[in-house]
Amino acid sequence: MVEKVSESKGIEINTVKGILTILVFIGHILLGSLNDNIFRYIIYSFHMSLFFFISGYLLNIQKLMNENLLILFKKYLNRLIIPWVLAILIYSFIQYGEDIINNSFLMFYKPYYHLWYVPAFLGYIAFTFFLLKLKINIRTILISLVPLSLFLNYIYIRPGINLHFNSALFSIVSYLLRPQFYFYFILGIFFKKSFKNKISIGINVI
After folding, report:
1. What's the burial of 205, exposed, middle or buried (CB within 10 Å: 0-12/13-18/19+)?
2. Distances from the Cα of 50 to the Cαs of 36, 53, 132, 166, 181, in angstroms?
3. In angstroms, rounded to a whole number, what is the distance separating the alpha carbons of residues 151 and 145?
4. Exposed, middle or buried: residue 183 (CB in 10 Å: 0-12, 13-18, 19+)?
5. % of residues, the chain, pLDDT over 70
6. 3 within 8 A of 60, measured Cβ to Cβ
7. Which residue has the higher pLDDT, 176 or 22?
8. Mean per-residue pLDDT for 91-103?
9. Separation of alpha carbons 200 and 198, rounded Å
10. CA within 13 Å, CB half, 87
11. What is the pLDDT of residue 39?
12. Which pLDDT belongs to residue 77?
């Protein structure tokens, strides 16, 4: 469901994605918490937000509006869902060995490191799908997400804050779906919809 882009713009977007992938790798190997390592703090302050912005920008919103939920599920089953499940099972077998059965819920609720990206991405697509089916336009979704995004991002960069949320559902949603990044996904959709013919976002790297 990714919209086709011109060859030159495709190269530029892939360049940005390549740089972000390298930053993800660097961010995971740097030692210390976000508050203890300034370089890690800088990387984490924008790299995933920009990843989701690009994902939203590349989403074919017209096709999404015309799909039904079953077809949407089938589109991503072989491309993302099955590889994601296999990656989790392989890592969990290495991590837990014979105890994998006892940890079966944990490995899907709290997948290893970057493996949370796939359920978050699919969750954003599904949520956007339902909102569009309710005839809520992208601008309204974006505006409504501003205060929520500011609040969640503030919590994310200030891990010492304790809001006393003990709900299992809240814990699953906050870790697996990372709702603080949904704003940037919608912003990517809005940006393309509003400025596609006015602004080129390409970045040339020599």
Report:
1. exposed
2. 23, 5, 23, 30, 9
3. 10
4. buried
5. 67
6. yes
7. 176
8. 74
9. 7
10. 15
11. 74
12. 92
Average pLDDT, the chain: 76
Among 33-42, 51-60, 102-111, 162-171, where is mean pLDDT lowest?
162-171
Task: Print the SS3 string covering 134-150.
Answer: CCCCHHHHHHHHHHHHH
Closest CA to 2 of 68, 71, 50, 57: 57
194 — pLDDT class (breaks 50, 70, 90): confident
- How far apart CA 187 and CA 185 sit, in angstroms, is 5
